[in-house]
Amino acid sequence: MKKIFTILGLVFIIITFCMIYLVRKGVSLRSEPLIRPTVISADQRNIASHTVLRIFPDLQQNHYVIWGVLPETPDTQLLMTHFMEEYYKKLQIPVHIIQNGLEASTEEIQNCPKPCWIKMPHDQANELSANKFISSKIEPTQKAHITITTMPFNGDEVVPEYCDQQQRLTLDCVTPVSVREIHRKMKDPKQLYFFLRKYNDRDFFLFVQKELPKNSP
Q: Domain span at residue 184?
C-alpha cells in the first residue's frame, strides 16, 4: 500500500512539473470558465456585481489589478464605475486608480496603495506573452497582481484557421475561440450576454457582447 501511495505521489509531482513547464514554454492549458454566459441586465451592472463575486478573493488579495480597457469608450467607463462601486459595496474599501499605466512613473506605481487598479491599453494588460510593463513596473515591487481584460464580441465571430493551430493562444484568437466554445449556451438570440474566463494563473478575460449576431432572427 505504501508503494502505491508513493507512486501516486510521484505521478502527481511529475504532472505538476509538466504543467508548469508547458505553461512557461508556451503551451496553453485549457481556459477555466468562471462565469457562464449570462444575460446582461438593462443597466449593465450585473456584469460588475457577478464578476466581483466570482473572482473573490483575487480582487482582495492582489495589490495590483491591471485592467485592459484603454482606449475607453462610454461603455467601458460605465463598466469601470460599476466595478468600483461594487467593490466598495462588498468590501468597504475604496479603490485607487491609475488612469494610464504607460504614463505613470515607477514611483507612482510603487506608491499606489492597495487596491491599486491600473488602466492599460487593451492589448497590453495580459501575460499571454511577455509583458514589458508588468516585468519592468509591477514585478520589481514584489506585490501580487492579476489582469482583467475586457473583450467585446458580437456572437458570430469566425475562428481563423491559424487560431486552431496555435499551441498557446494569442490575444487575437482568445475571443473567437472562447465565443465558439460557449456559443450554444447563449440560448436567447435576442439578448446580449457576458461571460468570464481565466487563462494561466493571473489573466482574466471578461467577454461582453456589444451587438446581436447579424444572422440572429
A: 31-209
